[in-house]
Amino acid sequence: MDVREYYERIRQIEASTSEEEVVVVSLSTPDGGRAGVRREVKRELAARLIAEGRARMADEKEAAEHRSQLAADYAQAEQQSLLGRTQLAILPESELRALKHSLRVNKS
User: Fold this and answer.
1) Separation CA 64–CA 78 (nearest Å)
2) All residues at 6 or more sequence positions from 28 whose CB lies less than 8 Å from its CB, including other chains
3) Per-residue pLDDT tens over the stretch 42-57
4) Considering only CA atoms, which of 38, 35, 39, 74 is closest in space to residue 53?
5) How far apart are CA 6 and CA 21, in angstroms?
6) Residue 1 pLDDT grade (very low, low, confident, very high; cuts 50, 70, 90)
7) Does the predicted model carry a pTM greater than 0.70?
8) Beta strands in the chain (DSSP E)
């Protein structure tokens, strides 16, 4: 493929996409690329991958599934992060008695 044709094809693909980030689905390639892997990438990178025959544009259903899976994964990671923030303090018995005593004195 001529270099001029290559870049013209990239520009055409970019122009056909209105979104800034798009979901692409990888294609099987001779150098070991796995088919069916979905990724959300910038429009410029998507155009390059498509022009090189390494990926195709995901249809609306595939893109919606990918984005909903990302949202679910994010929510789960956020929940795990919140669980990891639980704090536990171990006090010696003498300090615990002192805290209880100070609470009783302040209530009176």
Assistant:
1) 21
2) 34, 35
3) 999 999 999 999 999 9
4) 35
5) 21
6) low
7) no
8) 21-26, 38-42, 55-57
